[in-house]
């Protein structure tokens, strides 16, 4: 394809978005409930936050860069967002799209009235759709893939809003969990494969939607159920709830990385406690890759539940050999390698007295670029550890995610560039081992992976992408092995820029 992909930055790295969504309808203080919910979803995106509300007549919005607390903790901020319906979004994107115009919920005045949308996920044919829309005269206000949905709804010829939305969604590939507001009420929907999470709750008479169940706990709301893959839930201002399944039934492929890293451990994802899943992965890791060592040390915080599982399974003592400062954000979100390296030091410090002279098994959830692992291993050695073994509670991350989890372009993934032994050398550990993909499935789902129809989206580990990736087709080759749907492998070309 001969156009510039607006979802890529100048370095050819794709626009990274990790997001959380929340919605409340029928709540006297809908914006306050939404702000609280967004607080609990802060781990899904720290760069910007937004809330849009509706008071029965008008829509109101407030969006800002930074954390939820910086934007929505004052009474004044909430007072700007009146009404019994509100939706919010937390967002993290490191590149070109960092401006306020990309902060969600996005809002537009359509012929049918106001339309607000908050999106978690990534649309894998957004650039292609956008190109076609622009050629027809559409004027885009943002570089967000989500805006494509607004234009598709606006130009659909169906008479009702719900049919226009369904019409738009039929044209979209990839992952989406959406919270939409129109004057008639709220519409929450999840893509047919259910790649990104979306759950439904109740607070008194109010109906809530959120990326994760923790967003309900914070306001004392009850977790009802997940929005099913391919389901559209419509709620009106009288509290009537209607469930639609316009896309038929598909085999769900929820993202397994939500269990590995992304969701909070106190959330329920795909019917299972994330904490329990992570502990089970750690136990499985110990079964597959035991280690002769004195202490099991988690890389905080992401490695903690898996390390508990590893320690319990192996009988080795669990100790906090690394102490984390809670005043530094996620290491991963630093844009340059230099900043990322110093971020690791600012965030983690060795518990010297504990690790000195000890053989340590370090546990982390994943190795992406290898920056964190290398620094942590160095830190353990500097603190006097006699041996440093690394165990990873996921298989090697060898493929980029195109569905809304931030992974760098493929060439920057350590596991895409090397096998396990060179990775071990790179991070300078005495040994390195990963849980197997079969073991991950056993731990998370209690099931063997069905290679013909995998039960999760595990593309970051296997390269088996569950949808087409239209925007990437025809892009320059980087020798990636992609496969689509049912595990049917085919050689394809992947690049992070389309030009
Ligand atoms: P790296 O230093 O690039 O290998 O990053 C690995 C660390 O980043 C691990 O400690 C993970 O917990 C964390 N991590 C893995 N995936 C992500 C992600 N998508 N966003 C933010 N952090 C991540």
Automatic annotation (TrEMBL):
<feature type="binding site">
    <location>
        <position position="457"/>
    </location>
    <ligand>
        <name>[4Fe-4S] cluster</name>
    </ligand>
</feature>
<keyword id="KW-0479">Metal-binding</keyword>
<dbReference type="GO" id="GO:0009113">
    <property type="term" value="P:purine nucleobase biosynthetic process"/>
</dbReference>
<feature type="binding site">
    <location>
        <position position="255"/>
    </location>
    <ligand>
        <name>[4Fe-4S] cluster</name>
    </ligand>
</feature>
<dbReference type="InterPro" id="IPR029057">
    <property type="entry name" value="PRTase-like"/>
</dbReference>
<keyword id="KW-0004">4Fe-4S</keyword>
<keyword id="KW-0411">Iron-sulfur</keyword>
<keyword id="KW-0408">Iron</keyword>
<feature type="binding site">
    <location>
        <position position="365"/>
    </location>
    <ligand>
        <name>Mg(2+)</name>
    </ligand>
</feature>
<comment type="similarity">
    <text>In the C-terminal section; belongs to the purine/pyrimidine phosphoribosyltransferase family.</text>
</comment>
<protein>
    <recommendedName>
        <fullName>Amidophosphoribosyltransferase</fullName>
        <ecNumber>2.4.2.14</ecNumber>
    </recommendedName>
</protein>
<feature type="binding site">
    <location>
        <position position="364"/>
    </location>
    <ligand>
        <name>Mg(2+)</name>
    </ligand>
</feature>
<dbReference type="Pfam" id="PF13537">
    <property type="entry name" value="GATase_7"/>
</dbReference>
<dbReference type="GO" id="GO:0051539">
    <property type="term" value="F:4 iron, 4 sulfur cluster binding"/>
</dbReference>
<keyword id="KW-0658">Purine biosynthesis</keyword>
<dbReference type="GO" id="GO:0004044">
    <property type="term" value="F:amidophosphoribosyltransferase activity"/>
</dbReference>
<dbReference type="Pfam" id="PF00156">
    <property type="entry name" value="Pribosyltran"/>
</dbReference>
<dbReference type="InterPro" id="IPR017932">
    <property type="entry name" value="GATase_2_dom"/>
</dbReference>
<dbReference type="GO" id="GO:0006189">
    <property type="term" value="P:'de novo' IMP biosynthetic process"/>
</dbReference>
<comment type="function">
    <text>Catalyzes the formation of phosphoribosylamine from phosphoribosylpyrophosphate (PRPP) and glutamine.</text>
</comment>
<dbReference type="InterPro" id="IPR000836">
    <property type="entry name" value="PRTase_dom"/>
</dbReference>
<keyword id="KW-0460">Magnesium</keyword>
<dbReference type="GO" id="GO:0000287">
    <property type="term" value="F:magnesium ion binding"/>
</dbReference>
<feature type="binding site">
    <location>
        <position position="401"/>
    </location>
    <ligand>
        <name>[4Fe-4S] cluster</name>
    </ligand>
</feature>
<feature type="binding site">
    <location>
        <position position="460"/>
    </location>
    <ligand>
        <name>[4Fe-4S] cluster</name>
    </ligand>
</feature>
<keyword id="KW-0808">Transferase</keyword>
<feature type="domain" description="Glutamine amidotransferase type-2">
    <location>
        <begin position="19"/>
        <end position="238"/>
    </location>
</feature>
<comment type="pathway">
    <text>Purine metabolism; IMP biosynthesis via de novo pathway; N(1)-(5-phospho-D-ribosyl)glycinamide from 5-phospho-alpha-D-ribose 1-diphosphate: step 1/2.</text>
</comment>
<keyword id="KW-0328">Glycosyltransferase</keyword>
<feature type="binding site">
    <location>
        <position position="302"/>
    </location>
    <ligand>
        <name>Mg(2+)</name>
    </ligand>
</feature>
<dbReference type="InterPro" id="IPR029055">
    <property type="entry name" value="Ntn_hydrolases_N"/>
</dbReference>
<dbReference type="InterPro" id="IPR005854">
    <property type="entry name" value="PurF"/>
</dbReference>
<feature type="active site" description="Nucleophile">
    <location>
        <position position="19"/>
    </location>
</feature>
<keyword id="KW-0315">Glutamine amidotransferase</keyword>
<dbReference type="InterPro" id="IPR035584">
    <property type="entry name" value="PurF_N"/>
</dbReference>
């Amino acid at each position: 394809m001969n156009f510039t992909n607006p979802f890529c930055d100048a370095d050819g790295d794709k626009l990274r978005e990790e997001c959380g969504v929340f919605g409340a309808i029928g709540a006297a203080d809908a914006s306050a409930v939404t702000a609280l919910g967004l607080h609990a979803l802060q781990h899904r995106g720290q760069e910007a936050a937004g809330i849009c509300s509706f008071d029965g007549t008008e829509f109101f919005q407030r969006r800002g860069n930074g954390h939820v607390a910086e934007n929505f903790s004052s009474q004044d901020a909430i007072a700007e967002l009146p009404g019994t319906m509100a939706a919010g979004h937390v967002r993290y994107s490191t590149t070109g799209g960092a401006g306020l115009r990309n902060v969600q919920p996005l809002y537009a005045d359509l012929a049918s009235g106001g339309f607000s949308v908050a999106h978690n996920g990534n649309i894998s044919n957004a650039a292609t759709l956008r190109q076609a829309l622009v050629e027809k005269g559409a004027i885009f206000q943002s570089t967000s893939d989500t805006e494509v949905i607004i234009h598709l709804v606006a130009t659909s010829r169906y008479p009702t809003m719900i049919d226009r939305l369904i019409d738009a969604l039929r044209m979209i590939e990839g992952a989406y969990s959406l919270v939409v507001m129109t004057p008639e009420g709220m519409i929450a929907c999840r893509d047919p494969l259910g790649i990104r999470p979306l759950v439904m709750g109740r607070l008194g008479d109010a109906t809530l939607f959120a990326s994760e169940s923790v967003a309900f706990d914070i306001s004392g709301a009850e977790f009802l159920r997940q929005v099913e893959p391919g389901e559209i839930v419509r709620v009106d201002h009288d509290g009537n709830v209607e469930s639609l399944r316009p896309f038929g039934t598909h085999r769900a492929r929820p993202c397994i990385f939500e269990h590995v890293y992304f969701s909070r451990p106190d959330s329920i994802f795909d019917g299972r406690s994330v904490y329990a899943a992570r502990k089970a992965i750690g136990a499985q890791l110990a079964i597959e890759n035991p280690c002769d060592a004195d202490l099991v040390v988690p890389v905080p915080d992401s490695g903690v539940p898996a390390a508990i599982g590893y320690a319990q399974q192996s009988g080795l003592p669990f100790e906090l050999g690394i102490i984390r400062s809670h005043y530094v954000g996620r290491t991963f979100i630093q844009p340059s390698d230099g900043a990322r390296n110093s971020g690791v030091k600012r965030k983690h410090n060795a518990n010297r007295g504990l690790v000195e002279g000890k053989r340590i098994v370090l546990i982390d959830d994943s190795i992406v670029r290898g920056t964190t692992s290398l620094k942590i291993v160095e830190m353990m050695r500097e603190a006097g550890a006699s041996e440093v073994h690394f165990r990873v509670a996921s298989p090697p991350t060898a493929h980029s995610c195109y569905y809304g989890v931030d992974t760098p372009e493929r060439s920057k993934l350590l596991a895409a560039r090397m096998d396990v032994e060179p990775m071990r050398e790179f991070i300078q550990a005495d040994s390195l081992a990963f849980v197997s993909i079969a073991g991950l499935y056993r731990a998370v789902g209690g099931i063997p992976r069905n290679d013909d129809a995998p039960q999760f989206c595990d593309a970051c580990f296997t390269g088996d992408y569950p949808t087409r990736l239209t925007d990437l087709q025809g892009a320059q080759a980087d020798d990636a092995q992609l496969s689509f749907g049912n595990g049917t492998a085919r050689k394809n070309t992947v690049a992070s820029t389309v030009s």
